[in-house]
Amino acid sequence: MENNFTMVAKTLFGFEDLLANELTLLGAQEVKTGVRNVSFSGDKGFMYKSNLALRTAIKILKPIETFVVTGEQDLYDKIKKMPWEDYLKPTGTLAIDATIHSDLFTNSLYIAQKTKDAIVDRFRDQTGERPNVDLRFPDLKVNIHIDRQQCTVSLDSSGDSLHKRGYKTATNIAPINEVLAAGLVMLSGWDGQSDFMDPMCGSGTILIEAAMIACNIPPNLMRKEFAFERWQDWDVELFEKIEESLLSKTRDFHHKIIGYDKAPSAVAKAKENVKNAQLDDFIEIKHEDFFKTQKGGEGKLHMLFNPPYGERLNIDMEAFYKDIGDTLKQNYPGTDAWFITSNLDALKHVGLRPSRKIHLMNAKLEARLVKYVMYEGSKKGKYLK
């Protein structure tokens, strides 16, 4: 289609295939996975839709120019030649974000500054006026990506990272990123056809993302703003039409989503976030110590959690992970238990053999998402499944 253009969705390491699948199901064209990103094409409405609906995307960038750069002056000259008046008023505000993988350029802040100078100088030469920098709420957010000598200039259509869904006002010490939480739920294969539990739920992020997946609720409906709302071609009617279309595809959910935490403060925060997300009807939070609990009900239970690790709490990790294994083994038959950990040594103390291990990054920490299958009755039962 002539109105289609290329976009790049950024994501976390290990989530590229999940994001590519999300984009394909949403209707994207020419979907191609990279490292921590997926490129695709679509029109303006699809750009709005992808910002609203993608669970594993951090940002949606719209590349507008690609060229080879040989040095700082060359970068300045080529940026200055671009028709920035098509995207910004002389009295508008802008912010520049730069990422660099190059021997030629080493300082991303300096590259951002050089880009800003080129844009501002173009406006000043042409109109006598110049845009100002506004790092918090710019009218235009520009992304510069330099890989060796290849420079890609993109408009950032998202603004704040898309993990900022808008429902989280209360957090604990180290809250899990919403994009990471959604990706873990998706990687664990949960389809909303069973009960779901997070036995160490913290501020409730995994539970909320699981509920939105179960009900097919777009994750970013509650965001205050996307960057494209300040663009000169912003189409509010089209945006509202896309929103309505996505909302019409939500579905009912007929199982339970349960969260435990042994810290009363975490329980209070989780309840507040669940209420903000308007998911009280689907999620129940209880003040419980997982190690003193057992599975309720007969059906299959899907469990996913993010246990605390050494950087956050002063606990005996060996004993802690042994307790996880013992509790699962003794009290949770008929459960698929998944958890993510950055403490790879501690996994040895769970005392169970994982049926799956997925390599991920949790912030800058290498991590594993592991799965333990707790069978009903004797182990022989597993061969009958």
UniProtKB/TrEMBL annotation:
GO biological processes: methylation
Methyltransferase keyword on record: yes
Presence of keyword Methyltransferase: yes
Pfam families noted in UniProt: RlmL_1st, THUMP, UPF0020
Identification of the protein by name: Class I SAM-dependent RNA methyltransferase
GO function terms (MF aspect): methyltransferase activity
Phylogenetic placement of the source organism: Bacteria, Pseudomonadati, Bacteroidota, Flavobacteriia, Flavobacteriales
SUPFAM superfamilies: S-adenosyl-L-methionine-dependent methyltransferases
Protein keywords: Methyltransferase, RNA-binding, Transferase
Natural source organism: Gaetbulibacter aquiaggeris
THUMP domain location: 46-157
